[in-house]
Amino acid sequence: MTGRNEAAGPDRNAIRAAVAEAHRREWAFVLAATARVTRDLDSAEECVQDAYVAALDAWARQGVPRNPGAWLTTAARNRALDSMRRDRTLRAKLPLLIPEQSHEPEPAADDGTGLIGDDRLRLIFTCCHPALAREAQVALTLRLVCGLSTAEIAGAFLVSEPTMAARVTRAKKKISAARIAYRVPEPAALPDRLDAVLTVVHLVFTTGHTSPSGPELVRADLVDRAISLARVLRALMPDEPEVCGLLALLLISDARRATRTDAQGNLLLLDRQDRSQWDAAKIAEGAGLVVDALRSGRPGRFAIQAAIAAVHAEAPSYEATDWPQLLVLYDRLLRAWPSPVVELNRAVVVGMVSGPQAALDDVARLESDGRLAGYRYLPATKADLLRRLDRHSEAHQAYLAALQLADNPAERAFLARRIAEVSAPGA
After folding, report:
1. Which of 24, 240, 315, 415 has a beta carbon 3.0–4.6 Å from 321's, enabling a disulfide?
2. What confidence tens digit (pLDDT) does each residue in 63-74 have?
3. Is residue 189 part of a domain?
């Protein structure tokens, strides 16, 4: 009897996998739509979480719906409305995120300003309000827009989970206390809010491009979500060079996705990747956007980074890359965006133009000032330069330091192989 029931019953693993996939793909849509009902991010998040829990049971009984996102949105909204009906007095305590309106579902095509109305975009601009500190903006967007767990965000920021939980909670409370509006700002206010939004979208991409945790190098759902959001911004602000530059940067960077690991999942650096397998359509689209961004005559950090990515992407081989041109671009990027990470990336290019010792001198300066303490790519870069100089014992120590800071399995396996190489007899 038990065997027949189990054979005839639903595949619980398949249901859990379907709910997990819906979480990756639909979280931002469901939360943003629910926030339009609750007018409170905490309440919306709680209702959405309840909807995902309910899906585990309902889909096991009824089957996975044809449109999981619509099912989850309806379930979350209904929970929100039920909660509000049970306690009408609660509405007086909720922040007024949007003007008073009907709580029936609304189309997302127009927000009443003549601008593109996208619930995810409203949610991002809410999370990126200038009243919030930049780290809070990013953390809140990763939590609410991308659905990352507190532990995942803490890992990306190199802080403890309780610290990140407190940061997210404070940010949501500030949105409530400041009565921050859940909408895309008026056109006149967009430029002041744009840099924060672009930074957040870029960090969503980089979190997916090299996942801080998990079995895969790439979290494709985050990468695809970031590109989608960049396209929404591009449609919203087609004449803004930095929006154009961001979309170009994401497209060109993602064009190499299929070649960043081999068939066994081993990490492949740029010099080992099969360029014939890069996504030519994404590179072409990105290169065209780079031209548009630079044509403005006032490119910012994203446009310049996109230009750097384009030089790499259009080179016929790693050796044939125009390294002097890249050095010029990195110098320009440093003027537009002084950053120790940019200095580290510039040092890699210096190593190709002037040799590894010159680059190692730059890395030593970055080590001494402490700004990149805990940043795994600093010891990894140092190790590679030492390896090229045949200083294998020092390279071994630097690779070990990088390994201690790396969490992604593909990166850890790569570093372990490098350690074995520099430790081999005769190396």
Report:
1. 315
2. 999 999 899 999
3. yes
